[in-house]
Write a structure and sequence with these properties.
Blueprint (H helix, E strand, L loop, with lengths): L2 H15 L5 H15 L2 H8 L12 H15 L1
Helix pairs in contact: 1-2, 2-4
């Protein structure tokens, strides 16, 4: 799947969670959603966008969730 498609899909998830009043919980819930429902290859490909030009296409909430997901996967 293309990185742009994964970014679009992740941002759609982010739109849903933006309504949550607790930002930290929203970030955690997005990370959990990606961890439990996305294929590991999709997660890996999306995580690879961090630090690159495509990272700026991610909603800030999604970007923070990916960073949290990356740290959790590294543990």
């Amino acid at each position: 799947m293309s990185p742009d498609t994964l970014i679009r899909m992740a941002n759609q998830i982010g739109v849903f969670f933006e309504a949550m009043p607790d930002r930290e919980q929203a970030v955690g819930d997005i990370a959990n959603h990606l961890r439990h429902t996305w294929d590991p290859r999709m997660r890996t490909q999306l995580l690879a966008t961090l630090g690159g030009a495509k990272e700026m296409k991610l909603k800030p909430l999604v970007r923070d969730a990916l960073k949290a997901l990356g740290h959790a996967d590294a543990d």
